[in-house]
Amino acid sequence: MIYSPFSIHGPDRTSPWLITCDHATNTVPDFVAGGSLGLPKAEMARHIAYDIGAMGTALALATALNAPAICSNFSRLVIDPNRGKDDPTLIPQLYDGTIIAGNRHVDAQERTDRIQKLYQPYHDAIADLAKGRSITFLSIHSFTPQLVGHAPRPWEIGVLSAQDRRIADPVIASLSGALTSPVGDNAPYAGFFPGDALSQHAHGPGRPNVILEIRQDLITNKAGQHKWANLLAPHLEAARAHANL
Question: Exposure pattern of 139-150 as b/e (b: 16+ CB <10 Å)?
């Protein structure tokens, strides 16, 4: 099978949503450090390598919303597509207490190779899917219930957005009435990193957008993924209507 740095699902679907999953897999392509970053399987199965459950949830939401979806096919430890090219964590050397041995000696040429073979094709594919369409970007991520050395996180879901709150605010309001746990507002992470995926494809062009961060233990299997997709879809559609989109 020929390797591709991304997968596209339902490209001909007609919904105004475009769903992205930046950290969909923990794949290390063979041409990167021989296919291994020097970490044991247990570490590559952790959230440091990918967003556990996010791809399945993104695809379930894509079906529920009749929307196209695009997913990365390389570990965030190889290169993080949700960072700007000049971000020092683009190719991380340390993540949640784990040293990424295969990245310790990455030089300028290796960095360029990973950008050209992985990062840029993924972003070019997003741009191609969005071209000529009036769309709303929906980016799906997951988060660990607790970082090493930190307190447990109280949220089941976080709704992230930067300056454009057209989708985020009504989603937070409606989910807050539907869930018993608090809804994170730009938590557990901030809704913006300079040069991140949505700043490239949504913020600059002025497209409405939102990031959903779902606690990973809630979406580790298909049942959980479909449960959350079916829960979230009507809230997302109502938010677009509220924003007159």
Answer: bbbbbbeeeeee
